[in-house]
Amino acid sequence: MVVGEAGLAVGLCFGRRRGTMEEGEGVCILSLKSGDWWFGEQQQQPAAAAEAEAHSHREISLTKRHRDSVTQKATTFMGLGMLASRVIRPTASNLSRLSSLHFIRPIVSTPEASSAQSQPQSDPTPDPPPPSPRPPVAGARVHFPNPEDAIEVFVDGYSVKVPKGMTVLQACEIAGVDIPRFCYHSRLSIAGNCRMCLVEVEKTPKPVASCAMPALPGMKIKTDTPLAKKAREGVMEFLLMNHPLDCPICDQGGECDLQDQSMAFGSDRGRFTEVKRAVVDKNLGPLVKTVMTRCIQCTRCVRFATEVAGVQDLGMLGRGSGEEIGTYVEKLMTSELSGNVIDICPVGALTSKPFAFKARNWELKGTESIDVTDAVGSNIRIDSRGPEVLRILPRLNEDINEEWISDKTRFCYDGLKRQRLNDPMIRGADGRFKTVSWRDALVVVAEVVLQVKPGEIVGIAGQLSDAESMMALKDFLNRMGSNNVWCEGNGLNPDADLRSGYIMNSGIAGLEKADVFLLVGTQPRVEAAMVNARIRKTVRGNQAKVGYIGPATDLNYDHQHLGTGPKTLIELAEGRHPFCSALANAKNPAIIVGAGLFEREDKDAIFSVVETIAKNAKVVRPDWNGFNVLLLKAAQAAALDLGLVPESANSIESAKFVYLMGADDVNMEKVPSDAFVVYQGHHGDQSVYRANIILPAAAFSEKEGIYENTEGCSQQTLPAVPTVGDARDDWKIIRALSEVAGVRLPYDSLGAIRARIRTVAPNLLNMDEREPATFSASLKPDCSHKMSLTDFRPAIDNFYMTDSITRASKIMAQCSATLLKK
C-alpha cells in the first residue's frame, strides 16, 4: 500500500470480489479524506470482455459524484503509479496489473447486483411467471361496446383490459383490488372530496384520487405501496379529527364503512388533540334520524336527493370547519325515496328513525324476499329477530329496482304486527265475534256454500294474494260450479286474452332505451316509485321528452302536461296535437298506460285509441315494444295470467256467498245485506266489519309464494318469521275447506299446486325471468264502445296507505300526517 500526495492510497488487493464468494485480485485506491474505496479489476480475457461490457450497466452503479471523482483520479493515476514505484520495487507482475486496469468502480454492496453476479453464466435466472388473474370485486363485469376501445392498464403488476372512459377505481375493481372510498358511489356523480381512494400511479408526483382519474393506456397503478398506505392513513386521520366516539351508541355500528376502513387502512394513533366540533341535528321527517356531528361531508345524500330522488331538499352549507349538510330552509325531506339516504350514508349521520336503538345487525336474521306493496316487485331483505320483523332493506336487482326501494316498502313493516287476525272467529247473533276452532269455522262455511246456488257464489282475491292461493281459490269455486272470481284492481270486466294488454312490454330496465314517453292516466311517482325513478334517470341521461295526460301532479322531472282526459287522446290519435311530432320523430317511443283506467267503463275504448296512437308512432316494432301498462297491485298480473275473470260484471250485486281472500278495497255497499261474507286475511281491515266469518291467514313475510310484477317477471317470497297465532297459508285454508265441502282439491303440497299452475300459466314458474308477451295488441278486434270525455282521476290518493299492511302501520300514519299536509 502506498500513500500519495493527493491523499490517495494505492495498493494491490487480493481477495473476494464485491458481495460474492469468487476470488480475484486487482488494485485498490483509498481516499483518506472521504473514506471511499475504488477497486480496479484486471483486464478481462477477450472471451469474457463482451460479457463484462454487457453487465457493466447492470452490475456497476456509480452516482454522478462518483463518476466525476473517478474521472479526476484516473487522470492522476500515472503519477500515483510513479509515486508507488519509489517505495516498492517494481516487478513485472505488478506493472502488468497496473497497466491492465479495465475500469475503476466504488466498492458497494447491492443485493440485486450481487445476486445477479453470483449466478453461473451457463444457468441464467428464468423470468418469474406472470401473476394469475384475480376475480373482480363483488363479481364486477365489464362490457365492451366497441372492442377497439379497450385499453390495457396494469394494477399491481396485473394486466387488465378496460373500456375507454373508465376510472382508475373501476379498473382496480375489475383487477380484483378493492379500493377504499367514502364519497364515491357507482350510481351517483363523482365528487372526489373524501380523498380516501388515493393510489400511486407511475410518473405522477403525488398520489391521485382513483375515483376521478380516468384510466389511460399503459397506466401502471400501484395500490399497496408505502406511499399509498401513508396517504390513506393521513386521510383517515383527518376524517377522525372531528368524528365523535359514538360507536357504542350508534345505530350504524357493525355495518359502518368508517369503522371498517379505519381498521383496515387507518393508523394506530392520531395527532389531533383539539376540541372536536359539534353540529346541530336536522329534522328531515319521521323516517330519517340525523346526528350531523358524525357527518364526514361525503355529499352522497346531497347527490342522491338531487340526481335520483329529484328533490332539492339537501345541500352543503358553510366552508372549512363550519361546513355541514342541511336543508336550505327548515323543511322536511318530502321525497318518496328518502329512506335510501340511510343506506348510502357511510357513517352514522343518517340512520333509520323507527329502527333507532332496536337491534344490532349481527343479532338479525336476513331473509331474501319480494316487496308486495306495489306491482314493481322490488327485491328486499327482511331482517328479523325472533317473531318480529325489525327492518326491510333493498337487494340489488339491476332489472327491477337497482339498489333503491320506496319509503313505503322500507318502513311499512311495523304494520305486520298491528291489527293482526290470530284465530278463526264467527260473528254471533249479538254482532260480536267469538273465537272458534278451525274445524268449527270450516264446517260452518261449508254448510253455507253448499246451500247457495253456483251462480250466486263470488270469490275476490286481494291485492296481496300470491299465485298459489289464487289458483286454489279459482279451482275451489269452479268445483262449486261458479266462475265469478276475480282480483281487485282489475275491474269487473278485465281483458286477459292478450298478455301484451296488461304488462309492461318494454320491461322496467328497457325504459332506459326510450327517448319519448307518453304517460296516459298514470302518476308513476305514487303508483310505482321505482318505475318513476327509472324514467327520471332516462330523462336526465338521454334528455328524453315526457308527455303527460291526466290530473295535474308533480313528476320531479321535466314534462309537458298535454291534457287531463280522453279529449287529448283523440287529438293525438288524429294527429292534431303538437306532441305528435315528438312521437313521430322518436327512435324508441314508449307509451305507459295506468292501470287505474281498468275501473272505467269505457276502458276498452280508451285502450283502442291508445293502440291507434301506438300504431301511428310505430311504438310496436319487431325490435322494440314500447306499449306498456303500469299495474298497481302485486297480484294483478298473476291473476290475469291464471284467468281470474268474472263471468258476469254484476255478479257481486246478486251474490249470496262472497269469499274475500284478503280483498279490502271492494265496495261492500254493492254486497246484498243477506249475503254470507267470509273474510280470509291477515289484518282486521275494512272488509272485516262486514264479514260473518274470519279465517286468519299468513302475511307475505310468513309464507312462500309466487308474485308476478308489472313487467311479467315471476319472483317468490320466503318466510322470514313464523305465522301469528293460529293463522295458516291461504292455499292451505282453501284446500282444507274444499275437503270439508266434499270437493277435495287434488294437491296437498306447494310442489303439487305449482304443478297445477304449470298447466294453466307455466310462465309463473320461471323464477326471476321476464316472460315477454307472444302476441301484440294488433290481434284485438275493433272496439265499438263509445269513449266518455270524463277526465282521468288519480288512482292513488295516499301514497303511504294503499293496502291492509300499510294502513295498519303507525309509521305510515305519521308520514301521511306530516308529509302530505297541504
TrEMBL record:
GO terms for cellular component: mitochondrial inner membrane. Residues 110-122 have a biased composition (Low complexity). It is found in: Mitochondrion inner membrane. It catalyses: a ubiquinone + NADH + 5 H(+)(in) = a ubiquinol + NAD(+) + 4 H(+)(out). Residues 45-68, 110-143 are annotated as: Disordered. The keyword Secreted does not apply. Keywords: 2Fe-2S, 4Fe-4S, Electron transport, Iron, Iron-sulfur, Membrane, Metal-binding, Mitochondrion, Mitochondrion inner membrane, NAD, Oxidoreductase, Respiratory chain, Transit peptide, Translocase, Transport, Ubiquinone. Its EC number is 7.1.1.2. Residues 52-62 have a biased composition (Basic and acidic residues). The keyword Zinc-finger does not apply. Residues 123-136 have a biased composition (Pro residues). One of its GO terms (biological process) is ATP synthesis coupled electron transport. It is an enzyme of class 7 (translocase). GO terms for molecular function: 2 iron, 2 sulfur cluster binding; 4 iron, 4 sulfur cluster binding; metal ion binding; NADH dehydrogenase (ubiquinone) activity; oxidoreductase activity, acting on NAD(P)H. Residues 149-227 form the 2Fe-2S ferredoxin-type domain. Residues 227-266 form the 4Fe-4S His(Cys)3-ligated-type domain. InterPro entries: 2Fe-2S_ferredoxin-like_sf, 2Fe-2S_ferredoxin-type, Mopterin_OxRdtase, Mopterin_OxRdtase_4Fe-4S_dom, NADH_UbQ_OxRdtase_75kDa_su_CS, NADH_UbQ_OxRdtase_ferredoxin, NADH_UbQ_OxRdtase_Gsu, NADH_UbQ_OxRdtase_Gsu_4Fe4S-bd. Pfam families: Fer2_4, Fer4_NDSU1, Fer4_Nqo3, Molybdopterin, NADH-G_4Fe-4S_3, NADH_dhqG_C. Residues 364-420 form the 4Fe-4S Mo/W bis-MGD-type domain. Its cofactor is [4Fe-4S] cluster; [2Fe-2S] cluster. SUPFAM superfamilies: 2Fe-2S ferredoxin-like, 4Fe-4S ferredoxins, Formate dehydrogenase/DMSO reductase, domains 1-3. NCBIfam families: NuoG. Belongs to the complex I 75 kDa subunit family. Core subunit of the mitochondrial membrane respiratory chain NADH dehydrogenase (Complex I) that is believed to belong to the minimal assembly required for catalysis. Complex I functions in the transfer of electrons from NADH to the respiratory chain. The immediate electron acceptor for the enzyme is believed to be ubiquinone. This is the largest subunit of complex I and it is a component of the iron-sulfur (IP) fragment of the enzyme. It may form part of the active site crevice where NADH is oxidized. This is NADH dehydrogenase [ubiquinone] iron-sulfur protein 1, mitochondrial. It comes from Lithocarpus litseifolius.
